[in-house]
Amino acid sequence: MRILILSDIHANLEALEACLEAAPPYDRVFNLGDVVGYGANPNEAAGRARALGSVFVRGNHDKACSGLISLDDFNPVAGLAAMWTRDHLTPDNLSFLRDLPMGPVAPIENVQCVHGSPRDEDEYVFMAREAYSILAHVSVPVTFFGHTHVQGAYWIDDVRETEGVIDPKYSSAQGKQQFPLALEKTAAYLINPGSIGQPRDGDPRAAFALYDTQASSVTFHRVPYDIERAQKKILSAGLPDRLASRLGEGR
Ligand code: ZN
Predict the structure, then answer these.
(1) Nearest to 37 by CA among 238, 223, 243
(2) Ligand 1: centre distance to CA 188 (Å)
(3) Burial, 136: exposed, middle or buried (Cβ in 10 Å; 0-12, 13-18, 19+)?
(4) Which of 79, 137, 146, 199 might form a disulfide with 7, Cβ 3.0–4.6 angstroms?
(5) How far is the CA of 24 from the centre of ligand 1 (A)?
(6) Domains of the chain
(7) Residue-level pLDDT, tens digit, the chain, 251 residues
(8) Distance (Å) from CA 70 to ligand 1 centroid
């Protein structure tokens, strides 16, 4: 089975459409949350994501934008965007977001999906030592996570007593690029496909991953999209300027 792993779409329809167009053939889609928030097309992005399948975990922006949590812990820019999104979502999309399940969700054997981490849906896993301490307690070999908007993976291998960090390196900063990762049978992995709609790892191209269960491999992808169009929509919607400028920087 070939599974498309999507995360942190953040209402960026241009990025989502570009990724779906560039994606190789797939059987299923797993969505790691933050479908909305920041971008100017929350209803269109939610509609597109809902049409792709039913495996989701909720992100912090999905909770904030649907009114499940207060905006107190959000920075001012994220809070303004969440309020704008809440005002613009249809009742149907609001209730869809409100009903999304908390991770971990285990859609198939040996795989779990989370937004932040398996121990806390809102935890940011940025550091290898945090990743290794999480991996020491997981009961499945493959955990997909999002939330940081940084593409890559961490792994530990108790049998061979090794661990490591995967930071995908691409041959070009232009065009569509792929980076393959072969999964070792004896290792446990925390894998972040990167963010579709607001990458923060310095590469402004939209990010996703494809998991091939038979080949036991994950391929990371980067896809250029019409950033200017997404930026113009953000500005004309009256959303904070910073949300537009950061798309160009990939930060
Ligand atoms: Zn996010």
Answers:
(1) 243
(2) 24
(3) exposed
(4) 146
(5) 24
(6) 2-249 (3.60.21.10)
(7) 999 999 999 999 999 999 999 999 999 999 999 999 999 999 999 999 999 999 999 999 999 999 999 999 899 999 999 999 999 999 999 999 999 999 999 999 999 999 999 999 999 999 999 999 999 999 999 999 999 999 999 999 988 999 999 999 999 999 999 999 999 999 999 999 999 999 999 999 999 999 999 999 999 999 999 999 999 999 999 999 999 999 999 99
(8) 16
